[in-house]
Here is the input.
Amino acid sequence: MFRQRFLSVSIFVLISASLAAARDIALVSNKSNAIGALTVPELVKVCKAQTDRWPDGKPITFVMRAPSVPEMKMVLEKVYGMSQSEVSSLIVTSNHGRPTHPAILIATSDEELVNRVASTPGAVGVVDVYSINSSVAVVKIAGKLPLEPGYLLHGN
Here is the structure.
């Protein structure tokens, strides 16, 4: 009886942990940005700070959670194609010489991330879909919105 209960609880915990790690992530933008969609190659260039200005001339700031947080694992794999330490080095390198307008900002929470994107002209960021509010705009990736089949940053 005890073993069966322990086994049931263990399975529930493992399933819950895997579902919690598989979150849906969305690309959000400052509302003043004139972008509604990005291709996957464009997104990669923005995330890696290889593109520093939007077509209208605004400097780009990419806002993300720390590469070490579990929520970012999918972004590291699907967008960066790099390890956590490689992305951390990229952030340092990309921000070198840009003290007043960093290329990549790290937010400590999804709420902070949304607030930074909303308050920084030219900013975009990746955030859990359930943290989005009306202060930011959702950006399509490869013609898809979050939660649509085939969306790049879908958790499962």
Observations:
- The helical segments are 2-21, 40-47, 73-80, 84-95, 110-119.
- The longest helix spans residues 2-21.
